[in-house]
Amino acid sequence: MKRVWLCAGLALAACKSSDPAPEASAGKARRAVSPPAEAVDLDPDPDVVQVELTAARREDGAYAFAYNGQNPGPTIRAKVGDELVVTLVNQLDAPTTIHWHGAGAPFEMDGVPWMRDPTAPGGTFEYRFPLNKPGTFWYHPHFDTSGQVEGGLYGALVVTDPAEPSPDEDLVLIFDAADELLPSGPRPAHGHGKLVTKWRINGAEDGQLTLPGGASVRARIVNAANAGFLALRWPGMRVIGNDQGLLAAAESPELLLLGPGDRADVEWSVGEDAFTVEALPYTLNGGLTSGDPKPVLQVNVDSPAPAPTPLAWPFDGAAPSPDPGHTDIVYALAGSDRTGRWVINGETFPNVTIEEVALGEVVIVEVRNLSPTEHPFHMHGQPFEVLSINGEAPPRRRIEDTINVGIRDVVRLRLPTINPGDWMVHCHILPHADDGMMTVLRVRE
Ligand code: C2O
Ligand code: CU
Fold this sequence. Notes:
The protein has 4 helices and 34 strands. The protein is mainly beta. The protein starts with 7 loop residues before the first helix and ends with a strand.
């Protein structure tokens, strides 16, 4: 892979910027956004990726904790079919786990403290499982989840597919809100729906990155915020993948909305002109709201050159599955910031009814949001297909592990059960999950 990361000063001097970001032109220096350092593979076997992740307190920097001393944690890269082996070393003064969000780990490796003890302070645990699908996944603790994720414990797990074209650059961009609620702080006046005005990308606020003209770029965007919604736009937006690998076809939405826990892969064909990625003001209490868009990332061009044509991604063009019309499970999401109680079907975790389905069953799930707040709904264990949102089917097949359920929305999902276990089902606004918005779906063998 070509490495083209330039120092910010050089990049600016070399760059022909026809569209300087407002903050940059106002003389405010932007910080270079660099990709998180990659995990070192300790196993020489080409089909095994073995990594050590040490979770520890961090005394410097903006975050309280880190994996291997870095925020975000090391990017783990592997290819489909590899076995992943991760030794977690817990140097925190609290228990922890690692959950492999979206990657389809078997239940014993899922990192939930539900019928398995978390790793105690001073302890270690070896995660080992096969990576059986490509995609942009991420890892984070599932013990004191909101506190530990807010504290900076997360990283990307990128599983590549040799059948997909290799872009000139394959970048991980992990967004985190710099000004959302703190784990131990008071609840902000607007509960968990506070408007995020400062985003960090790979740990850097007001960032810029420099890419070579003529380069094809796959940028893997992860929203690792506890509660903040990302509503991004830039000129010529092209989205090629989501939570579970390539989309059925490329999309050019006006806005890329990523709730907490959500991911998207986007393609940039870098040409002559710099461009700016903006975040629009969006809160979970009502979507787009008043206020100006913020330039969160300035992309500079080094050696401008004609933009390449988009890569030939093997999109399958699949149509959505038909909705069979019946419903197996309803999850009704309710609650309020005033009570601080967030429920699924009126229950708060761990006092929940465990729904049981048989392995191999195709389960039709209906998620109804009865609350005045959006909820990024996440299911562990296996991905689902989105059948419809408020009765409207998506234009093409859409497979996800996390989907935002808007205020009063009814979202219907098709869940082919392929992974036995007692799977967490929860809102990925982590304070909501803490407050009870979490349940368990048992897939029985
Ligand atoms: Cu990102 Cu229960 O997970
Ligand atoms: Cu929620």
